[in-house]
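In the current project phase, the collection of sequences with tokenised folds has grown. One resulting record follows, to show the layout:
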Amino acid sequence: MNAASSAGPFIRGIVISSCGSTGRVAESIARLKRLVEMDIFDFIFCFAGVSTVDSLVVPALNRFVENVFVYNLGIWAALERSFGEDKHALNSSPVMLSFAEFQNLPNNTRKRVVDTRVMAYSNFKDGRPWGLDIYRCSNKDCRAHAHNMIFHPDGKQFFGGKWLQTKMKTTCMECKETRRKIATPSWIHPCDIENIGRCWYQWPLTLAQRTDIGITQ
């Protein structure tokens, strides 16, 4: 049970302790989201990275479940207060959450709304700007993957709630192209906590969003 007005009163959730295609392939994500849309589950959690390290992610995962079922937090708030507050867990793997919440409408009615998001840790040094290890070189004749690129902050660096205003510089090690003053796409949002580096976006990415990060297929 969960007494949060945005979630309750009874919460049905499933945690999928796998990584790879489960939370990364559009068809898989659509199937998981459909289970929430059909009101079979109120949330589905899974990892959206290539791999996970149990010793890093299990403590945060336990806190997420505890936040939902013991402390009655809203489902998304529970994720922010677990993985969002654990840099090491989130840095090891982004996490996907498809969840339903109720929105209050006029005349004392409520509407069930389903959203699917990824929470990630932005790490330029490890080739994951805004947590996106799928980033590509923007040179149409190259399209190198993120692990073959170098990412740096460019110009003034912002901190606290404004950290996403920091521009980015990229250098591709394959085609040698350098781009500067790259702004954070508008569809990337900071988490509702003050810890720098935590961000979220709707998932899976749309074609336009994929184009923003160099993916053309």
